Structure formats: structure tokens, C-alpha cells
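Problem: given the chain below (259 residues), write out its structure.
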Amino acid sequence: MDYQYLVVDPQVAPGVALVRLNRPNQLNALNLALMDELAAALEVLDSSEPVRAIVLTGNDRAFAAGADITEMADASALDMALQHRFASWERLEKIRKPLIAAVSGHVLGGGCELMMACDMVVASETARLGQPEIRLGVMPGAGGTQRLTHAIGKPLAMELILTGRTLSADEAFRAGLVNCVVPKECYLDEAIRLACRIAEHSPIALALAKQAIKQAFQLPLHEGILAERKNFSLCFSSADQKEGMSAFLEKRKPRFTGH
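Solution.
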């Protein structure tokens, strides 16, 4: 597919696809067209059998500096509702394959929300992360109040959202918002290495495990454990489970096929 605002490499490494936001002159501000393209691209990769993990990135200067304010400055509440602005975000929620954000520079507003919609985050030491919408007279609208609170807790989420303060990469790591912080020159390589380690495993088990982890935020503990047991049992319907356990007993590396 041809994209206006994305660059997509379906095999940047074995089993790993790379999606790059590509509005550099606007610091990768998230307009409606970009988000529609992103949802479509991720859906294509999600349905591609060779792809087992996806890395989402921007550039060294900005992962994404926020939503495109030019689309919203003069909008009414009715305009915002009729635009179905969050439909593409809901499509991102349905991506089954592991999604790793590689972020650097500005990771603000919608950019921070997009990062948090991913499953793991590798951050450059130059990254600045936050939800500064309050400075514009609004608040986060693409999951920021919910995901940030789940990730770092109520007191710090309240402080960041109500003051507009941003976090350094190291602060974000200490708060549990990102997996690791590395030098700017290697953050993307590190994210691809993480994706490669994930891609070595059964795509069936990966998808079921990702689903179970996400349900930990949606279900009471007892129901979450029941959902986990269901997915655990489903693994035993796959050839990958037989291969994985046979390889363990035979002391060899498994060859997972996704079946």
C-alpha cells in the first residue's frame, strides 16, 4: 500500500515490521489522515503471517508532538463528535500482535497517548513525555487520563495532566512508563532487537498472552484469572505448543510456524 504520512517496512528484521510516522515538518502531529493510515497499516501487518511483532517509531526529533491543532482550533463540540476522531484509535486497540514504540524527542499529547497504546516502549535519552493539553484549554481525549493513570498511578498522573509538566526519559522509566532508556543513536535498534526476541516465539501464544495481559486492566482479578486459563488451554490446540514442548524435551530450538 502507498501511504502519505507513513513509511512501512514489512520486514525490517526476521518476523519484525517497522512503521514510521512521516510528517517531519509538523513534528509528526497526528491528523485524522495519518491516524487512518496508521490503523490501516497496522491491520495489514496484523493479518500478515510472516509478521510476528511490529515496531512503531517517528524520528529522532519527535515521535509525535501531539494532535494536529490546526484541525481542531475552530471546531465545535458537534464537529468533534461528527468527525469520529477516535475511530482509528479504537482500531488500534484490536491489533493482536505485539506493538513496540521506539520514541525520541517530543512524545506529547496524542503522541504520548499513541505511545501508551503500544505494548512496550523503548525510549531515547532525549525523549520528553507528557500530556500538556491543559495548556490549550482542553484535556487528553485519546486515552491519556486512563492509560497514564494505570501506568504511573493517580498522584503523578494528576500532576502531569493538571499542570502540563513533562517527564524526562529517565523520570518516565522510574515511573514505569517505558521499558528502558538508551542513547539516541541506538533507541530504534534496541526496539528492533526487542521485537526480534519476541518474534522468535509462537505467534499464537504471543497473541493469547497479549490479550490476557490487557484483560488484567479490564476485568476483576478472579475473572482475569479465568480468562488467562481459557487462553492457556487454547494454546494446546496449536501445533506450536506440541513443537515447543517437544523441542524442550529434545533439547533443541523450537521451530514455530504459527499453526
